[in-house]
Amino acid sequence: MRPLVKDDSSTEGKTSREHTIINDPRGVTFVAGGKYTTYRLMAEQVVEGALKYFSIEERVQFKKTDSAIALNPWTDPESYDKAHLNIDQYCRTSLLKKSEIQKLVARFGTEVEEFFAKIHIFSDILG
């Protein structure tokens, strides 16, 4: 659950999902509203706001963030799309049920290919 910004809408469903960031002079930052799809933008804005309270000497210790780059390249949107397109192929090359593979793909994207490769290595060693 997230707090929404009061905007005089007649119902909660009509309330704007835009976010507001408030940097309190005591060094506390508040975030209200927002959407899951804008979490990276909100995070960048929060960090930028918080850094205003640091001295210039402290600020230079931090590099510019690039939250558009996925931390795990196997789970970026393109990899998820590729993994979903390959579900039938994964089914043919593994002993798992389609429902199990779908769960793995939803959680790990194309990283499932790494799991399958390791499983095959182990099955070669054991078999």
Range of strand content = 5-15%
Number of domains: 2
H/E series, N to C?
A: EEHHHHHH
Q: What is the count of DSSP helices, taking H or I runs of 4+ residues? A: 6
Distance between the termini: 50 Å
Write a concise keyword list for the protein shown above.
mainly alpha; two-stranded antiparallel sheet; 2 strands; 46% helix; 127 residues; single chain
Structure description:
- The protein has 127 residues and is mainly α.
- The chain has 2 domains: 1-69, no CATH class; 73-126, no CATH class.
- It is 46% helix and 8% strand.
- It is built from 6 helices and 2 strands, in the order ββαααααα.
- A hairpin with a 5-residue loop joins β1 (19-23) and β2 (29-33).
- α4 packs across α5 (98-108).
- The longest helix has 15 residues, at 112-126.
- The mean pLDDT is 79.
What are the SSEs and their pairings?
Blueprint: E1 19-23, E2 29-33, H1 39-51, H2 56-59, H3 77-85, H4 87-93, H5 98-108, H6 112-126
